[in-house]
């Protein structure tokens, strides 16, 4: 089949060459004909020109003869006519010359086109020859492959498969003390340094070291010609993964006709990974978490606590804290030092009695034994000394006599701005203005973290010193929406400041609108701060009597 295809290719090539040669011959003949025609046309034109010139000369001679007889006037007329005839002749000659030039240009263009066609034909022939050569090469390669396949098949057929039957017996050998089980390894990178010394008699180019402990095996292959060590470990990496099967090594002894099955070291196939040679490669400790040796219960508890903190849920963290509190053991030495130091300390028994009897309250810092309301809720423990300078926005508006819009400031502040204009003492005016500003920032901070927040709350800018303080006090870690306990604490701060601003006699109407709460809930918050209600005309006024008396929790009655 291959020979027939080659014969067909050669026949097609010969036909193409013949056709190309015939085309070239025809083109040459056409060129010769064109050249002959051009020469004939040139000769005809020259003959016509010579005839015209001869005729003109004869006419001139005849006219000269006549001019001898004709008078002078007539001679003048004849001269003019002759000049006119000469002009016409020159025009004719110029036209003929232009026609000849055009013909020459056309001939040149034709010759160029023919040359270009010849070049295209040559290029086509070259391309065809290249294609034919490639096809020949492919055919030769196919022939070679077919020949090699045939040879291989013949060799396989010639070779006789020899199958030996063996009557062997199995022998399973277990682990023995004082003997090391065989270690099975493989090179992970595919590079085998032992192939270099495969044909050599000595294996001095490679050193193999093994390190064993109770539950781990380590193999180090150190080729001398390389700067790498190939290290395999049973306690880290691939072998440290969970394993279901067991590995063993089988060795067939032809003399005794026995198949010995031996367990391998650590029941794992070690992966030899290339590592840079360092002096501490062999003494490296196992990876944390994979080695279960020498792990005390305390270390395991620490590990579980760290995992719970990073990945555990809130419920799981709460349960872990409760368990820690229950299982906590007090150190005897620390307890002795605490007892020695507290022996000579004087204690306020009344304060202890009230503190032990009352539960922990979600209110601002206070002194329940204070005599005056100013000391019951000290302003310095609510607004710190470094925060007063960042609360001067209300005072600046009052000094500039600008209007305070209720969209930017709470209703409680807008209805009490007139107090700042009435106060003459500058320190008291500054203090009250700062309290108003602090109330606005607290309310805006609460609204920013609520669901129905307005554009005014979004655009409101809280000073950085206050924002960090509010986030630490009234926001849960990592949560944008605070818990109900944090919201109640913020409300209690706002209500204490309203008491201070109104001279410890305030009403609920304005602040309830600002906090977006029903008046009854605001009343409950005031009572939790130790306030009492007084009716004056048609309004309810809240005062702060001292010493503070907080409402006691109601005991639920048991059902009979």
UniProtKB/TrEMBL annotation:
The keyword Transcription is assigned to this record: yes
Pfam families: RNA_pol_I_A49 (PF06870)
UniProt keyword terms in alphabetical order: DNA-directed RNA polymerase, Nucleus, Transcription
Compartment(s): Nucleus, Nucleolus
InterPro entries the UniProt entry points to: RNA_pol-assoc_fac_A49-like (IPR009668)
A single cellular component GO annotation: nucleolus
GO biological process, one term: DNA-templated transcription
Bias kind Basic and acidic residues: ranges: 47-58, 69-92
PANTHER family linked: DNA-DIRECTED RNA POLYMERASE I SUBUNIT RPA49
Protein's name according to its UniProt entry: DNA-directed RNA polymerase I subunit rpa49
Source species: Aquilegia coerulea
């Amino acid at each position: 089949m291959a020979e027939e295809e080659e014969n067909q290719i050669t026949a097609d090539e010969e036909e193409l060459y013949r056709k190309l040669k015939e085309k070239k011959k025809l083109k040459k003949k056409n060129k010769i004909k064109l050249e002959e025609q051009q020469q004939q046309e040139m000769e005809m034109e020259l003959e016509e020109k010579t005839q015209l010139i001869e005729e003109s000369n004869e006419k001139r001679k005849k006219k000269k003869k006549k001019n001898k007889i004709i008078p002078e006037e007539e001679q003048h007329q004849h001269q003019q006519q002759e000049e006119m005839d000469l002009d016409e002749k020159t025009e004719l000659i110029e036209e003929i010359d232009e026609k000849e030039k055009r013909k020459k240009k056309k001939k040149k263009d034709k010759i160029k086109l023919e040359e270009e066609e010849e070049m295209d034909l040559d290029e086509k022939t070259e391309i065809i020859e290249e294609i034919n050569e490639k096809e020949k090469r492919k055919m030769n390669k196919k022939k070679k492959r077919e020949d090699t396949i045939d040879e291989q098949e013949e060799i396989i057929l010639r070779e006789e498969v020899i199958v030996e039957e063996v009557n062997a017996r199995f022998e399973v050998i277990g682990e023995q003390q004082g003997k090391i089980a065989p270690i099975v390894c493989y090179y992970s990178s595919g590079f085998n340094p032992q192939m270099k010394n495969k044909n050599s008699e000595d294996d001095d180019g490679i050193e193999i070291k093994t390190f064993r402990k109770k539950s781990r095996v380590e193999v180090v292959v150190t080729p001398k010609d390389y700067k790498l060590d190939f290290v395999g470990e049973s306690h880290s990496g691939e072998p440290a993964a969970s394993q279901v099967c067991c590995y063993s090594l089988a060795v067939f002894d032809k003399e005794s006709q026995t198949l010995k099955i031996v367990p391998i070291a650590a029941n794992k196939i070690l992966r030899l990974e290339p590592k840079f040679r360092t002096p501490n490669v062999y003494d490296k400790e196992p990876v944390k978490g994979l080695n279960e040796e020498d792990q005390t219960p305390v270390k395991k508890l620490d590990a579980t606590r760290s995992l719970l903190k990073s990945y555990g849920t809130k419920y799981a963290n709460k349960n872990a804290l409760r368990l820690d509190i229950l299982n906590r053991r007090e150190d005897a030495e620390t307890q002795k030092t605490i007892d020695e130091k507290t022996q000579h300390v004087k204690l306020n028994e009344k304060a202890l009695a009230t503190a032990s009897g009352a539960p922990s309250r979600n209110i601002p810092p206070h002194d329940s034994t204070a005599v005056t309301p100013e000391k019951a809720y000290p302003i310095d423990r609510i607004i710190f000394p470094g925060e007063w300078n960042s609360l001067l926005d209300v005072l600046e508006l009052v000094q500039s006599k600008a209007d305070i819009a209720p969209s930017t400031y709470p209703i409680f502040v807008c209805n009490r701005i007139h107090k700042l204009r009435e106060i003459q003492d500058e320190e008291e005016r500054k203090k009250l203005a700062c309290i108003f500003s602090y109330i606005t920032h607290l309310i805006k901070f609460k609204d920013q973290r609520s669901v129905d927040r307005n554009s005014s709350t979004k655009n409101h800018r809280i000073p950085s010193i206050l924002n960090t303080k509010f986030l630490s006090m009234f926001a849960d870690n990592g949560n944008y929406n605070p818990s109900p306990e944090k919201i109640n604490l913020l409300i209690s701060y706002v209500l204490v400041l309203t008491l201070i601003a109104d001279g410890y006699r305030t009403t609920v109407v304005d602040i309830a609108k600002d906090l977006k709460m029903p008046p009854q809930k605001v009343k409950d918050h005031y009572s939790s701060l130790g306030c009492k209600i007084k009716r004056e005309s048609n309004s309810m006024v809240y005062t702060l009597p001292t010493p503070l008396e907080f409402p006691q929790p109601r005991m639920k009655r048991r059902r009979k």
